[in-house]
Structures are given as C-alpha cells and as structure tokens.
Amino acid sequence: MSKEITSRATDYSQWYNDLVIKGSLADYSAVRGCMVIKPYGFALWENMQAALDKMFKDTGHVNAYFPLFVPKSFLEKEEGHAEGFAKECAVVTHYRLKANPDKKGSLMVDPEAKLEEELIIRPTSEAIIWNTYKDWIQSHRDLPLLINQWANVVRWEMRTRLFLRTAEFLWQEGHTAHATKEEAVEEAEKMLEVYATFAEEFMAVPVIRGIKTAGERFAGAEETYCIEAMMQDGKALQAGTSHFLGQNFARAFDVKYSNKENQLDYVWATSWGVSTRLVGALVMAHSDDDGLVLPPKIAPVQVVIVPIYKGDEQKKMIDAKVNEIMKELKVLGIRVKYDDNDNARPGWKFAEYEMKGVPVRLALGARDLEQGVVEVARRDTKEKRTLSLEGIAAYTNLLLKEIQENLFSKAKAFRDEHITPANTWDEFVHLLDEKSGFITAHWDCTAETEEAIKEKTKATIRCIPLNNPKEEGKCILTGKPSVQRVLFARAY
Amino acid sequence: MSKEITSRATDYSQWYNDLVIKGSLADYSAVRGCMVIKPYGFALWENMQAALDKMFKDTGHVNAYFPLFVPKSFLEKEEGHAEGFAKECAVVTHYRLKANPDKKGSLMVDPEAKLEEELIIRPTSEAIIWNTYKDWIQSHRDLPLLINQWANVVRWEMRTRLFLRTAEFLWQEGHTAHATKEEAVEEAEKMLEVYATFAEEFMAVPVIRGIKTAGERFAGAEETYCIEAMMQDGKALQAGTSHFLGQNFARAFDVKYSNKENQLDYVWATSWGVSTRLVGALVMAHSDDDGLVLPPKIAPVQVVIVPIYKGDEQKKMIDAKVNEIMKELKVLGIRVKYDDNDNARPGWKFAEYEMKGVPVRLALGARDLEQGVVEVARRDTKEKRTLSLEGIAAYTNLLLKEIQENLFSKAKAFRDEHITPANTWDEFVHLLDEKSGFITAHWDCTAETEEAIKEKTKATIRCIPLNNPKEEGKCILTGKPSVQRVLFARAY
Question: Tell me, what DSSP letter sits at residue B491?
Fold first, then answer.
C-alpha cells in the first residue's frame, strides 16, 4: 500500500495529491476546479467544524444563513471589494433550460429566461449580508451583531489543488457589526486568537499570528489579521484571516445606527473565515511517506482494533475481549473502530490505517489473548509495544493525548528551526533556495519593494507578526531604513 | 406584541407570514425568491439537523460533499429527470466580470469568459453524484454505498413563500447504491420511516406514510414514498420523500458492478430528502394567534426565566436563585435563557417569548422568592401555575416532556378529525369546500382522472397510504371500479 505514495523527497506536490486521494479524503470531480469531499475527508471536516462552531458560540456568536446569490450591483458598491473579486466570479445569467429543437434529448439555455440583473455566486458574503444588516440595525441597542455562517462559496481559480485551492469550497464566514472602532478591532483580534487556538490545540499546527501588508489585505478591509503555518517543505500556508473592515461596508450599504446621544453614525465591521483549506494544511503539516498522520482530537477514527485469528473459535474469543475494550474506550469518549472484515488480511489493514492516519492501532491475536497482552502501535512515531490488556483503555486514552502533544511539538520544533534571519539580499536569496522556510528580514515598508521581492524570488511578506520586536535595520532590497523585521516565505 | 399578528381566522396565509417574520425565523432577501434564515430560525434548523444527522448515522450512513454545479450534459442523461428540472434551473454561463468601460464603477459580464458548457446550480444532486459513483463502484464489495449530503439547492420557483417554497433552500439528500432491487426498496422504506419518526417524535407532527401516484413521482424515480402532514387549515404538506430510483441513474451514468458470480449488472439506487420546508410545516402545525408554538425537543430555547424586581437589591437576590435553577436545568440538558435585560419590561418579554414559542416560561419576583414560589407558564395551553421553588428543575423537565406529548396528541386529534371519507362526487366537492382536511375516496387509477380532479377542485392525490386496507368501490369521478381509497387534499 505505502509503495503507491510518492515520497516527499521525490515530489512533495505529488506526495500531497497521493495522500489526499489514496487517503480517501477527496477526489477530483467532473466539474472544473471543484472537488468531491469523500466521507473520510468530510468526517474530518465535520470534527473541525464542531470544534470551531463551539468556540464561536462560546464567544457569543450565533449562526444564520444568507443567500447564495449576490446581485451584481451589490458587489459593485464597495469599490475595493468589487475589484478584488470581479475576476473570479461565477455568473448566473439565466433561470431556465428548454428542449433543444435541433437536437433531440438535449437541453439548451432558454434565451427568454434571461435575468434582468446577473447574479454572482457568492465569493464571500459581505455585500449580501451588509445589504441585510441595513434592515436589522437602527440603534445602538441592535449592536453588536455577532453572526456566523457555514456555507459554500465559489471563486473561479485558474489553477486548483485539492483542498488548497478549489473553485468551490466550504467555509465559515463571521460578519459582525459594532458601535465603535475599538470594539470592532477587539473582535477581529479575538477571532484571530480563536483561529490560532483551534489550529494549535486541535490541528496541532503551530501558527504565527500577524497582520498583512496593505498589498495582501482582503479586498475591502482596513486591516487583515492572519495566522500563518509552515508546511514540511518550508512553504507558508495562510490558515485563517480576520478582517477589520472599518466603516467601508456600512458606507457602501448605508448602515447607520443612532448612538446613546441619538446621533447617527456608520457601523463598524469585521469579517473572518476559515475553510476546507485547513484540511490541506493538516495533511501537509504532519503526514509522512506512509500516509496521513492525523491529530487525535479531530481524527474521524482515533483507535482501530484489528483481530488476528484463524477460525471461528479464535474469532469469537477475540470478539468478546474487543467488545469489552470498545465499551471502555467509548465510555472515555474515544472514537473506535473494530475492523473484523474477513476479506482483508491484517497486514493489508495495517497499511490501510497507516495510510488513513489513524492515531492508534491495537492488534489482538489469539496468542496475545492467552497471554493477556495486546500490540499497540502509534501512527506518529510508528513505535509498537506489547502491553497488558489490563488497563489498556486508560493507557490508550493517555496515549492519544501524548500523540496530540507530540505532533504539535514536532511541528513547532520544525517550524522554529526553519525561521531564519537574513541580513543581506544574497543571504535572503540563498536561504530561500537552499534552506527553505520562513525568513525574517528588514523591509522599507513600500508596496514597490514588496512587489519587486515577490517578482524576483516568489517570496511574499506573509505577515508582520503581532508583538513584533522593534529593531533598527536596512531593507534587504533597497537598503532604506526599517524599524522591524517582517516574515517572508514562499506560500501556498 | 400579539396584536400585530393577523389571526388564523382572518387570513391564514398572512398569519403564517407574520409568524415567520415577527417570530424572527426568516426574512425576505434582496434576491428574488431567496430568504435569509435569521439566527433564531437557523438555531431551530440546527436542532432539526442534529437529530436527523444522528438518525442517519445510526442507520449506517456517512456524510460527504459533492459539487454545487451540474454540467448541463449530465442533467440531460436521465430523460425524466431532465424534463422534471429543466424549467427551474439557475444557469451559470460565465466565470468573470470586468469593469464596464461605458460606466465608471460598474461591472459587466466579461463576454470572453463564457463557459464552454453551461453549469446548472444543483436542483438536486443525482446527476453529479451518479457520475461520481461510476468511479467508486466496481464490485459487490463496494456496495452498499450509503451517503448523505447536507447542502443548498436551487429551483427557480415562480411563486415563493418563506420556508415553504424558496428558490434556494437548505436540505439533506441521501444517495445510496445497492446490489439488489430488494435492498434498495428496503432502504427507501427505511428512510421514509426515519423521516416519519423524526416528524412525529421531534416535530410532534403526525404524518401519513404513503406512496405517490405516477404523476406525482420524483422525476427519475420508479417509486416515490412520502410523508404527508396536515396543517391547521386542513391543507396537506409533503414533509419528506424517499425515492426508489430503480436502475435509472445507473443506466444513465453507466454504473455497473460485478456480483459474486463475477457478472456485471447495473446498480440499484435510492435518494431521499427533507429540507428547510420542515420549518414551515412546524410553524403551521402548532402555532396560534399569539405566535409560534415550538416543540420542546427542537426549540432553540426550551425555558426562559424572567425576573420581576425593583432595584438592585431585589435583582441580586433573584439572580442568585436563578443561577441555582439554571445550573440544575443545564445538568438536565435543558436549553435555558435568563432574560434580565433591563431595557424591557416583564410584560413585553412575556409577549416576546410567546411570539417566539418558547415552551416554558418561569417568572420570578421578589415576593415569590420570599414565599419560595415561582410562576410557571406553558406556551402550548397558556396555563399558568404558581409552584414551589423546591424541585422546580425536575418539574420543568417533566413539563417539557408533557408539552412535547401534548402537541403531538393535539395535532393528531385534529388530523384524525379532518380525515373524512367521500363516496360521491358531490360529497367530495362539498367536503373540500366546507370542512377542509384530507378526504379518502375511490379513484380509477388513471392519470386522466387524477388530472381532471385536480383541475376541477385543486385537490391532488397526496398518497396511497402504506398498508392501505383493500376495499371495493367506484371512482368518485368516473364511477369505474376501484380496489382501495386514496388520500386527497389541497396542498402546500
């Protein structure tokens, strides 16, 4: 089984694709740029959703649902927003098909069913939501409005990759409205911290919290906060963004509220989102050449039990013991699967669950049973141990916690080893090509320099880290003065 | 508050709209035929989703996600299916907008970004899913495939009503593949029973399980099973359908499997779905002229506590007691809200939570506290009782169960009183106009008669109930012989 996966060293990009497809996470679809999320991949997403949804609700947010369609005129209202998304919009122009008179059995677009105004499939929902908020917000008593939506969105990307960049993807988008600028900024920062906590504690992916440069900001935002993760090839992956939108959308859609002094003012806004892209980040952060490695907290199956037996009698004895163990594991809230499918051999199953990244495997044979032991294999280190059946459930529970922590520590150590300061242009270029990873370097704060560096090296400014230490220095490209280092990397 | 709702007797249809909008379930949107599901309505839908999702998983199904888009040529492949949906398809023809050179600040569809093949926004996903199943199914070992999807779909309806009929709606669609006809029929029937159980046990809405006539079948199905509910105006509402699709989609998309004897055969299919329409059914089944009446099992808030006080000192004492009660209620798994917002008076809150259909209201005043009592009001009967604070959590828990049962019994009694046999045409017409409700009557089993009855009376055959007793008789319209009564009604 594992032989079918391209190794990271051979072709990192192909390795990733192999994992997604052979790990049964997703498949290409017949529709350009769209993927099918397979049951195993979707179960992973469901676990991520559940954890995030709880965090959103615990911070006072509620869910709602807004239309899939954005009238073209709405998109036009916020200029920067329109420019940012116009080039990748799927456009609905008609609302009916009819039989094609020239070709029996085929359908054609009915020219008489042309929409008066074209509808855009939402690439993000600021426009449709702020048009709605106009009706919902009159007074300071209507604020803050803390709403989240789980939805599909479409951005017509030319180059797509499973999970990382697809024309349609699933995400959540929070859209909040506030009475003051301070409160909106606080909200944007709070949600960034929610994302960072989720990435680190559930996905076991360490992230750098920061703000984007003006050139990398969300179209329509005044400030974009982001979390940046490092993949095993040293490239960066933006794992979530939270935007302070100022009063831009309130102005565009004329959303005003009367404050306590009965004066009218525009409302302050934020939006924030993470998407199925996180599944791609997860795959690339932890997996190895034998397959997926999933963090226990969000793995669809945390423990798989494989019986090793000859004949019905042995099987029955093993079944009985396994049922006991399963019961104990379930009481501990552990997601466990017993794979006693007799069409496949244990060795095949071992490879299969390694491929699928199941954190812990218990293998129980007839002789083990006699001796009161079981083989415990952990996916992250591939270590195997033979342990007493006595207390195995409690042990497994601790082991899952240990694996979760180990994945995070390992990813963090790797990440920290691959953040390197560069003080000259030569050093910068050399590091990018030879070491890979993130580079901290001085920059003169101009869009021109940022663009020039990107053109020369394909590296972008990933972020200016929050709480970045001040340090006098000179821009690596222009030599102009700079007051702090920023984070550069090539990125997904 | 309650004065703003049109009464059922005055205008049933307006009453329904008032409830949906003033009960904060949903709003019209700026996009024709699409609605905004507001946080309170969405919380209701989330509770329905959670219950259904658990039932699907308990019956062996897994979730997945397929593309929003269906290429036009896919829709054409199953002829009946294509005919059924062609007239209400939203069609994507372009993938880019550009700046309009004739009008600064406005966008236009870029004529150079025309799709080679138009994409239909899924009205349902059989076509895209069966095209995918082709790659997933080779052998009998790949079967059964038991997959569900939670998604948005679009059907361009000309006349829309909040929840009941909207251009975009949310739903789940199960799509299963089986090796034998028997197994597929069994699956379709099993999922109908899941829907019926959900409607009756969670929504407290009694339903009649039946099969549709050929004329009312899903486009592409060989048999459509349905559950039919009765609204308070006596009209029927189809609350869920489950389809046995035969080998139609397998043939259309060439999905074959090799059986145990290594022979190739087409796969057998089912599909089944329920949608946000159920929220409309729920509203119409139980609510009254004062607002929504929600069944406890799916109510977003099951218990609301309103304090009645003057001054901070009283408030503090009440707060302390309420915190105790809340704690106990939460331990029992009850969703409780303490509304101590001091911008609104208790009377206003009472009306507000009546409008929102919260099943139980506890009102606690300073004098109550002294006397160790609390006022308990139930939304369904509007009965109020003053009870000892001692054991109030346990009492409330039982009361919620009683309300759930009472709503079901009441709806069932109403439904049963409004099912009437008609033996002649005159009787049929008279009953429809004067009594309203469902009518059981003989029918000659022809599509012509079914159509003629519909044209004359607007009543349709809702279903042929499962386990329908055989009874010789004569068709009410044509007098031709019939072997059983079928269920007629006007419907939503």
Answer: B
How many residues would you count in chain B? 492
Q: CA distances (Å), A329 to each of A332, A388, A392, B483, in order? A: 5, 16, 9, 56
The verdict on a CB contact (< 8 Å) between B30 and A63 is no
Are the beta carbons of A89 and B96 separated by less than 8 Å? yes
pLDDT of B79 reads 84
**A103: nearest CA in chain B?**
B76
Q: Is the pLDDT of residue B142 over 60?
A: yes
Q: φ and ψ at A252, to 5 degrees? A: -60, -35
pLDDT score at A81: 84
Predicted local confidence at residue B3, as pLDDT: 56
Mutate to test the interface with A, among B44, B45, B91, B117 (most CBs of A within 10 A): B91
As a residue count, chain A comes to 492
Are B117 and B239 spatial neighbours (Cβ–Cβ below 8 Å)? no
Cα distance between residue B108 and residue A298, in whole Å: 44
Kindly provide the b/e burial profile for residues B256-269, where b requires at least 16 CB atoms within 10 angstroms of the residue's own CB: bbeeeeeeeebbbb
Tokens read off for B424: 């002649």
How far apart, in whole angstroms, are the C-alpha atoms of residue A344 and residue A363? 14
Contact present, B257 and B264 (Cβ < 8 Å): yes
| Helix and strand numbers, DSSP H then E, in chain A | 14, 26
**How many alpha carbons lie under 13 Å from residue A404 in its C-beta half-sphere?**
17
Answer positive or negative: Cα dihedral of B395, B397, B399, B405: negative
**How is residue B93 written in tokens?**
């023809």
Among the partner-chain residues A63, A74, A76, the one whose CB lies closest to the CB of B42 is: A63
| pLDDT per residue as tens digits for the range A416-468 | 999 999 999 999 999 999 988 999 999 999 999 999 999 999 999 999 999 99
Query: What is the nearest CA distance from A63 to chain B, expressed in angstroms?
Result: 6
Bridge partners, A334 (sequence order) = none
Q: What is the mean pLDDT of residues A322-347?
A: 96
Task: Compare CB distances from B96 to A46, A87, A97 and report the shortest one's residue.
Answer: A87
- Full strand arrangement of the beta sheet holding A373-378: A336-338, A303-308, A360-365, A373-378, A384-388
Which residues in chain A touch residue B74, judged by CB atoms under 8 angstroms apart?
Answer: 30
Q: Please report how many Cα atoms fall inside a 13 Å half-sphere around the Cα of residue A306, on the Cβ side.
A: 21
Average pLDDT in chain B: 96
pLDDT above 90 (res A78): no
Give me A76's structure tokens.
Answer: 């036009």
Residue of B38, B40, B44, B65 best to disrupt the A interface, most CBs of A under 10 A = B65
What number is the ipTM of this complex? 0.96
DSSP A317-332: HHHHHHHHHHHHHHHT
**Mind listing the pLDDT tens digit for each residue in B147-205?**
999 999 999 988 899 999 999 999 999 999 999 999 999 999 999 999 999 999 999 99
pLDDT of residue A1: 44
DSSP structure string for A106-144: -EEE-GGGEEEEEEEEPSSSHHHHHHHHHHH--BGGG--
- In chain A, what's the furthest Cα-to-Cα distance? 83
> Is B63 within 8 Å of A94 when comparing Cβ atoms?
no
Q: Do A94 and B95 touch (CB under 8 A)?
A: no
Cα(B458)–Cα(A491) distance, rounded to whole angstroms?
62
pLDDT tens string A108-139: 999 999 999 999 999 999 999 999 999 999 99
Contact yes or no for A97 and B74 at CB 8 A:
no
Q: How far is residue B13 CA from its own chain's centroid?
A: 18
For residue A485, the tally of other CB atoms under 10 A from its CB is 22
Question: Which residues of chain B make contact with A70, given a CB cutoff of 8 A?
Answer: 31
Spatial CA neighbour of B173 closest among B61, B41, B298: B61
Closest approach of A19 to chain B, Cα-based (Å): 17
